[in-house]
Amino acid sequence: MVTEIILQDAMQRLGESRAFKDRNLRLKGADIATQRGWTGVPNFILENKEISVGAKLTYAMLLKYTRDLDECFPGQERLAKDMGCGSRSIVRYISELEQVGLISIQHRGQGRPNLYTIHIKASF
């Protein structure tokens, strides 16, 4: 409750700032925490030209699953379903993220999902 009030106050101050008003994007009907939540992705991920759009979305989805934890273990089929792509694409995106050091993977055995550790760092 207290955190929500602090966030509302910060968002109100941001919305009133001159820099925010001069932007060419407008949020309409958005509130601090939408009904299904939101996921923040570091800008260095969004702006990086070394990884594909699919890998960026996979990274964002892993952050979504992780939330307040340090590690996550969604199955590849779950990732594929949630992202609207095939399992082979997920394997490629995960491999791409692992190769650049943004995630590490602990294989947990047949029939069990892998455990992914997300590395938040500003350079590859």
Question: What characteristics describe this protein?
Answer:
124 residues; mainly alpha; 3 strands; 8% strand; disordered N terminus
Can you put this structure into words, describing what you see?
- The chain is mainly alpha-helical.
- Helix content is 48%, strand content 8%.
- The chain contains six helices and three strands, in the order ααααβααββ.
- It has helices at residues 2-16, 18-21, 43-47, 53-66, 76-83, 87-99, and strands at 71-72, 103-106, 115-118.
- It has a three-stranded antiparallel sheet with strand order 1-3-2.
- α4 packs across α6 and α5 packs across α6.
- The longest helix has 15 residues, at 2-16.
- The chain is globular and about 45 Å long.
- The model is unreliable at 1-7 (pLDDT under 50).
Q: What is the percentage of strand-forming residues?
A: 5-15%
What is the CA-CA span between the terminal residues? Answer: 38 Å
The largest β sheet comes out as: 3 strands, antiparallel
Query: Structural class from helices and strands?
Result: mainly alpha
Q: Which descriptor suits the 3D outline?
A: globular
Task: Please tally the helical runs, counting DSSP H or I stretches of 4 or more residues.
Answer: 6
Uncertain runs are 1-7
Average of pLDDT: 76
Number of strands: 3
N-to-C SSE string, H for helix and E for strand = HHHHEHHEE
Radius of gyration: 17 Å
The percent range for helix content is 40-55%
Strand order of the largest sheet: 1-3-2
Describe the secondary structure blueprint for this structure:
Elements: H1 2-16, H2 18-21, H3 43-47, H4 53-66, E1 71-72, H5 76-83, H6 87-99, E2 103-106, E3 115-118
Antiparallel strand pairs: 1-3, 2-3
Helix pairs in contact: 4-6, 5-6
